[in-house]
Amino acid sequence: xxxxxxxxxxxxxxxxxxxxxxxxxxxxxxxxxxxxxxxxxxxxxxxxxxxxxxxxxxxxxxxxxxxxxxxxxxxxxxxxxxxxxxxxxxxxxxxxxxxxxxxxxxxxxxxxxxxxxxxxxxxxxxxxxxxxxxxxxxxxxxxxxxxxxxxxxxxxxxxxxxxxxxxxxxxxxxxxxxxxxxxxxxxxxxxxxxxxxxxxxxxxxxxxxxxxxxxxxxxxxxxxxxxxxxxxxxxxxxx
Length: 239
Known about the structure:
Alpha-Beta Plaits, 3 domains, Translation Initiation Factor IF3, alpha+beta, elongated, 5-stranded antiparallel β-sheet
């Protein structure tokens, strides 16, 4: 029985020693791998001009419950005048879409029941002619001279070729990362070898010369001219 216990003890001890040796060899190898690689972040940026624009305006009328019928009639009239104005400015019917009329209740102070109702309808124009839509947005207020109650909800600009541009910028960002790695390696007397891994960061679409980047990416829609920037984190083998 004692011999058996002694054998178990020797075997257990040998297994523990083997585990320690394997662990030390693993961490030593990891240390060598860390010393033999260099991780850097590269970036690439270019300026683009928006090639799509989206303009949304809203028509509104306020009416009492007894005036709802005439309120709807006035909104319909305003819609016709707005569409006529857009057509005169060269906008195609296919580029215009409109929502149904919504109704919001308005309560006066100390009133438990709605005393008035706001009727609202939005019109959206989408076009590749960015300059035309911009010019139209400045003319929208002139409809008030015809009795149209209209407001601009938003004017947004987009760049439709962003997916293709991102691929191109990622390639440039990797080149920038390698260039940075080479300069760092020069100071240690080593040279940069092949790339080991790379991961891309989020895309930043910003107003020109803006520095307000976001960890989650950003897409500015307020400006026609935009800066598009991507980053890449890359690891290179050192020689």
